[in-house]
């Protein structure tokens, strides 16, 4: 079925189970990308939708996915060599760094993530930036995209179009 070794598959299943809120061996389609990102992959939302068969948006919080169906999707994503790296996400952010010191105003990061690229909800953004602002309400964007996958979808959402 998949090219993963037994130890990897066990690790993947353990992570999958962490997202299984109802403890029935299934996750929502909307959680699939987050599980993949928690496992070190970095697919875009579009890539996740593609491997899921492009479900309708109203199905994302209704359709369920078991581990046996998730694993082949993870394999497809893992084989994709075009996934963005941390450096890709950091690359566009200096445009918003007015003083060139590696930080951007927290309000500006929030605005970018809610309005550009793979838009996030305000709640998702708040979860992602919580604890990252300094005393001047600034955020180190390099630290932000390198943070652990506490909010697994957060770094992927930093792939925003950069104004010229």
From TrEMBL:
<dbReference type="GO" id="GO:0016460">
    <property type="term" value="C:myosin II complex"/>
</dbReference>
<dbReference type="InterPro" id="IPR050230">
    <property type="entry name" value="CALM/Myosin/TropC-like"/>
</dbReference>
<dbReference type="InterPro" id="IPR002048">
    <property type="entry name" value="EF_hand_dom"/>
</dbReference>
<dbReference type="InterPro" id="IPR011992">
    <property type="entry name" value="EF-hand-dom_pair"/>
</dbReference>
<dbReference type="GO" id="GO:0005509">
    <property type="term" value="F:calcium ion binding"/>
</dbReference>
<protein>
    <recommendedName>
        <fullName>EF-hand domain-containing protein</fullName>
    </recommendedName>
</protein>
<feature type="domain" description="EF-hand">
    <location>
        <begin position="7"/>
        <end position="42"/>
    </location>
</feature>
<dbReference type="GO" id="GO:0008307">
    <property type="term" value="F:structural constituent of muscle"/>
</dbReference>
């Amino acid at each position: 079925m998949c090219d993963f070794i037994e130890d990897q598959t066990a690790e993947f299943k353990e992570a999958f189970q962490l997202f299984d809120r109802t403890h029935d061996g299934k996750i929502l389609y909307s959680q699939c990308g987050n599980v993949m990102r928690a496992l070190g992959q970095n697919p875009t939302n579009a890539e996740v939708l593609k491997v899921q068969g492009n479900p309708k948006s109203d199905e994302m919080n209704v359709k369920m996915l078991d581990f046996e169906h998730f694993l082949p999707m993870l394999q497809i994503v893992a084989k994709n060599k075009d996934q963005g790296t941390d450096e890709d996400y950091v690359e566009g952010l200096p445009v918003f760094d007015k003083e060139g010191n590696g930080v951007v105003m927290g309000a500006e990061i929030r605005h970018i993530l809610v309005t550009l690229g793979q838009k996030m909800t305000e709640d998702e953004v708040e979860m992602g930036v919580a604890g990252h602002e300094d005393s001047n309400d600034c955020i180190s964007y390099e630290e932000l995209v390198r943070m652990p996958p506490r909010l697994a979808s957060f770094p992927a959402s930093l792939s925003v179009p950069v104004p010229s």
